[in-house]
Amino acid sequence: MQTLRIDLVSDVACPWCAIGYRRLEQALETLKGEIEVELHWQPFELNRDMPPEGEPILEHLCQKYGKDAATMEQSQREIMAVAEELGLNFRGAVERRANNTFAAHRVLAWAATQNRETPLQLALFDAYFGEAKNPSDPEVLREKAIEAGLDGDTAEAIARSDQYAEEVRAAEQTFMEAGVSAVPGFILDGRYLISGAQPAEVLVDALRQVAQENANC
């Protein structure tokens, strides 16, 4: 059975990243016994220049897309419906604020060294979209690190420092140069980029194609 690497470029503040990961889980369930995946989360910041206090999400999205509040709220409700169909907790999605996520990415980089990055990613998705919490708040990162089986004190200390800053910035640059300009971005086996939260069937077909190409090499 082949093992394929997936680099999943995402942001904790990206609703479609949470949806895309859940669809990837569905794809991997279909491929069980056929293909194994080595998953590596990679950082992307949607709101790199956002001040620490953030902005109300609807106000931020109206400014970003030039739409009125009613239109943006309807769009968010539609995303919430998609997420909830997949079993995701998006109950706080409309109440959340647009936040900078650099501290979250730094703590996630540390979590990767402990082989606990995926549990922490999922806990932070839940914190942000389900509970409308700031994913870069050191206390939130402490709480969610503990939920993910990590040391909360260490997570909080990293969040309050500049640890892993160079690693995160280098990874962001690498994947921007690889062509990732929006998230989620799935890079299969270091060669193929799939952009967006594609349906599980699309991911199944793509992973099978890469596996077949590898088998023919």
Write up what this structure looks like.
It is a single chain. The protein is of the alpha+beta class and 217 residues long. It has 9 helices and 6 strands, in the order βαββααβαααααββα. The strands form 2 sheets. Strands 2-1-5-6 form a 4-stranded mixed β-sheet. Strands 3-4 form a two-stranded antiparallel ribbon. Strand 1 (2-10), helix 1 (15-30) and strand 2 (35-43) form a beta-alpha-beta unit. Helix 1 (15-30) crosses helix 9, helix 4 (102-113) packs antiparallel against helix 5 (117-130) and helix 6 runs antiparallel to helix 7 (152-159). The longest helix has 17 residues, at 69-85. The model has no long low-confidence stretch (mean pLDDT 96).
Query: H/E element string?
Result: EHEEHHEHHHHHEEH
| Structural class category | alpha+beta
Helical content (DSSP H or I, runs of 4+): 40-55%
- State the helix count: 9
Q: Percent of residues in beta strands?
A: 5-15%
Unreliable runs: none
Largest sheet: 4 strands, mixed
Compute the average pLDDT: 96
Overall form: globular
In total, how many beta strands?
6
Roughly how many Å apart are the termini?
15 Å
Radius of gyration: 17 Å
Biggest β-sheet: strands ordered side by side in the sheet: 2-1-5-6
